[in-house]
Amino acid sequence: MLALGSPAASVRASTTCSALLRELEQIWKDIGESELEKDRMLLELEKECLEVYRRKVDEAANAKARLHQSVAAKEAELASLMAALGELNLRTPIQTDKRSASLKQQLASVTPLVEDMRIKKEERIKQFSDLKVQIEKINGEISGYNQLNNAAVSSLPTEEDDLSLRKLTEYQTHLHVLQKEKSERLNKVLEYVDEVHSLCGVLGLDFGKTVSDVHPSLDGTSIEQATNISNSTLEGLEQSIIKLKNERTFRIQKVKDIVGSLHELWNLMDSPKQERNKFARVSSILKLSETEIREPDILSLQIIEQASAEVERLTKLKASRMKELVMKRRSELEEICRMTHIAPDTSTSAEKSIALIDSGLVDPSELLANIEAQITKAKDEAMSRKEIMDRLDRWISSCEEENWLEDYSQDENRFSAGRGGHINLKRAERARVTVTKIPAIVDNLINKTLSWETERQMSFLYDGVRLVSILEDYKLTRQQKEEEKKRYRDQKKLQDLLLTEKESMYGSKPSPKRSNSFRKPNGFRPNGNGSMTPKPRRNSVGCSTPELLTPRSYTGRQNGYFKEMRRLSTAPLNFVALSKEETMSYASVCGSELGSPPHQG
Question: What are phi and psi of 455, to 5 degrees?
Answer without folding.
Answer: -65, -40
